[in-house]
Amino acid sequence: MIRKLAGYIGRYSRIIYLEPLVVLIDVSFELTIPLLMARVVDVGIANRDVAYIARMGLYMVLLALMAMALGIFNMWLATAGSMGFGANLRETLFEKVQQFSFTNIDHFSTASLVTRLTNDVNNLQLTLMMALRILLRGPMMLVVSFFMAYNINAGLAAMMAVAIFLLAVSVAGIVRTATGRFTIVQERIDAMNNTLQENLIGQRVVKAFVRAEFETKKFQASNDALTNAFVRAVSVIILNMPTMMLLVYAATIAIMWRGGTMVHAGTLGTGELISFLSYVTMMLRSIMMISMVFVMWARAQASGRRVVEVLEAEIDIKDKPVVALAPSPQVNAGRVEFRDVSFKYLRTGTGEEVLSGVNFTAEPGEVVAIVGGTGSGKSTLVNLIPRLYDVSAGAVLVDGTDVRDYPLNALRDAIGVVLQRNRLFSGTIRENLLWGRAEATQAEIETACQDAQAHEFITSFPQGYDTQLGQGGVNLSGGQRQRLCIARAILKQPKILILDDSTSSVDSDTEAGIRESFDRHLAQTTVFIIAQRISSVRHADTIVVLDEGKVIGVGTHQSLLASNRVYQEINQSQQEGGLAR
User: Fold this and answer.
1) Within its chain, how far is the Cα of 207 from the centroid?
2) 20 to 30 A from 58, CA-CA: which of 142, 297, 322, 454?
3) CA 123 to the chain's CA centroid
4) SS3 assignment, position 375
């Protein structure tokens, strides 16, 4: 995992190379101080040489100041390097997610991707910062301190070595157990974020149905699951410090007892014992620092695996390899053919086909309506045209070319899509409309909005086209959002326009105005309309009837009324509904 993520340090790698040098010098200065202290005790104090004591004391102060300055510089380097790593990793993850197909997003879920780009990356960059500050310094200080202590007395150093070995074994066991538990913690964060996101997006529905108490209990269950998982993980981690303190202090007491005996016997100097104990203290601090990093590493491993899973995810919808000198196909007319198309969602795991054996053709400039009951596969069908999903069998052809042979950008630039769930973004109305075509003029924007029956309500706002929209366009009605999304798609001047139940929130007169504008200004555009109301599709050139993923009728409104049972039933149910109202 380290090798897979190391490359994201990028231009901050020079910090990684500089860090060991800074740490080495810092540690050298700090470790020299106990040696000078031993000289003060064994030489200066023993000989009552005040000048020698003052000179050694001055050296110790200077070394301490230099060590402090290097420590601050080390902290700055660690912070800059880790934050740069985090920024690079987040940017790469975001770019990867932008390439995801709907299938990839279905696999990970939106809430999980948010957690991976935020919480998981934060865990990794924090661990890297601690590693740069401590993991280099700790082992250096531990090794050099042990070497210095060994030079003072090998027997006492051996006692400390036993304690260090036992500590290494205990920390390794703790980290191994904690890693699996922290993986569960990150999954619980995914679940809680999903519950939170779902609730915040659906606040109006929650309040309308007085479900606040139910949602609170639902969130509490998710929150409790996270809390319990975290407590379970931490219950292993908290064993680290008591175990370490027990072993180290036991070793320290043993060293003091043995060292005191040696001083009393005259085989060890008092200053040497003081210096040795100083190195024991430094080793203790080093072990504490190293154990902290390894404890954080347990959680970082769980986060790292989740991040790498996104980075290594196979994108199922991508451009074919470019063939030298071969011109890329372009959408010119907008003719769409479904040739024996079948499709099934990979995420369901049932193997059941949502679409099966679909065959029909939409000629350039035609208005094609797709009707059928709920779950018949209408939205799935039109999602195959811009390759939001890929067919499981058969082929979708645009202008006689399989959509899989087009460069994705070229294909999608020629298709305007208004999906079932209308999505606007924070910013002004104009900024949202320019998603359709960034270089569009104000006159073109207004024409598109007039065609979508949106110009009138936009100009009724004090700021007009510069009106700020809240997240998702929350300060607009459902019908207004739909009309803006239609205007955005029209502004794209597409060869193919897909409207997936995109007029469900507008009244019949507004819908008729939109339909008339299509006849005037989109006569050369192939339009696909999915609608629940027969009144919305009766004027279409071709109507395709779907039932359980299969095409069971293709024709005009009149011909289907005369011959297609399912279409007759849909029409009859809506007429009866209208009479009932």
Assistant:
1) 30
2) 142
3) 13
4) coil
pLDDT-derived band at 1 (thresholds 50, 70, 90) equals low
Average pLDDT over residues 7-12: 80
Task: Evaluate whether 381 touches 355 at the Cβ level (below 8 Å).
Answer: yes
On whether the CB atoms of residues 204 and 241 are closer than 8 A, the answer is no
Q: For residue 28, what are the contacts with CB-CB under 8 A and spacing of at least 6?
A: 144
CB 377 within 8 A of CB 495: no
Residue with tokens 């999304």: 485
| Residue the block writes with tokens 């499709």 | 343
What are the residues facing 475 on neighbouring strands? Answer: none
8 Å CB contact between 384 and 390: yes
Beta strands in 374-501 (DSSP E): 393-398, 401-402, 415-418, 427-428, 468-469, 496-500
Locate the domains of the chain by residue range. 2-311
Contact between 163 and 284 under an 8 Å Cβ cutoff? The reply is: no
- For residue 121, give both structure tokens: 């990356």
Q: For residue 121, what are the CA distances in angstroms to 115, 131, 316?
A: 9, 15, 25
Q: How far apart are CA 152 and CA 38, in angstroms?
A: 11
pLDDT in tens, 437-481: 889 999 999 999 999 999 999 999 999 999 998 777 777 888 888
Contact 62, 33 (CB under 8 A): no
* Rounded-to-integer distance, Cα 14 and Cα 24, Å: 16
Which residue has 């024709």 as its token pair? 555
Residue that is written with structure tokens 């069971």 in the block = 552
pLDDT digits (tens, 9 = 90+) for 151-177: 888 888 888 888 778 877 877 777 777
C-alpha to C-alpha distance for 390 and 333, rounded to whole angstroms? 22
- Taking the C-alpha atoms of residue 44 and residue 25, their distance in angstroms, rounded to an integer, is 27
Cβ–Cβ < 8 Å for 83, 125: yes
- Crossing angle of helices 212-237 and 270-311, in 10° steps, is 140
Q: Which CATH class is domain 2-311?
A: mainly alpha
- Give the per-residue SS3 of 135-178: HCHHHHHHHHHHHHHHHHCHHHHHHHHHHHHHHHHHHHHHHHHH
